[in-house]
């Protein structure tokens, strides 16, 4: 049986994000909030809620993909800080947030959750985000 067998994206994540593509292990999603450059990685494994539940090879792959994305976001969006977090209090499916933070963003220095009204992207802004990010995502990435 494939390691992806039985995987489905949590409905809340599906509703709050825009698919950008795939890495070997994870889905790459854009949080649909233009207030912050904010991506989410979701391992395509069924029933996983915590990083320690992943097989050792998948843990290493998740870290590699997270670091790869973090480096590219930091380079392309020039923030003051890049927050990476796996909380899961509202959506239990394992997912890693990657949020570029700036000292002048509406939530600084606090967490982004619940600090400012969500500003959904329009189709042109989504295309611009993809264009800005996708050229620097190298091998192993498949655009969504």
CATH class: Alpha Beta
**What best-fitting shape do the alpha-carbon axes yield?**
globular
Helix content: 25-40%
Low-confidence stretches: none
Number of domains: 1
Strand content: 15-25%
Query: What is the residue-averaged pLDDT?
Result: 92
**Major β-sheet strand ordering:** 4-5-3-2-1-6
CATH topology: HIT family, subunit A
Annotated CATH homologous superfamily: HIT-like
Q: Mind telling me the C-alpha Rg? A: 15 Å
Q: Indicate the structural class.
A: alpha+beta
N-to-C SSE string, H for helix and E for strand = HEEEHEEHE
What is the count of DSSP helices, taking H or I runs of 4+ residues?
Answer: 3
- What is the terminal-to-terminal distance? 24 Å
> In this structure, how is the largest beta sheet organized?
6 strands, antiparallel
């Amino acid at each position: 049986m494939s390691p992806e067998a039985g995987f489905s994206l949590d409905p809340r994540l599906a509703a709050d994000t825009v698919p950008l593509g795939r890495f070997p292990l994870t889905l790459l999603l854009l949080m649909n909030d233009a207030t912050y450059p904010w991506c989410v990685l979701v391992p395509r494994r069924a029933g996983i809620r915590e990083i320690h539940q992943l097989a050792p090879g998948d843990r290493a792959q998740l870290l590699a993909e997270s670091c790869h994305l973090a480096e590219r976001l930091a380079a392309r969006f020039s923030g003051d800080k890049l927050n990476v977090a796996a909380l899961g209090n509202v959506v239990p499916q394992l997912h890693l947030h990657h949020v570029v933070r700036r000292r002048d963003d509406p939530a600084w220095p606090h967490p982004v959750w619940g600090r400012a009204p969500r500003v959904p992207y329009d189709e042109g802004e989504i295309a611009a985000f993809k264009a800005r990010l996708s050229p620097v995502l190298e091998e192993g990435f498949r655009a969504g």
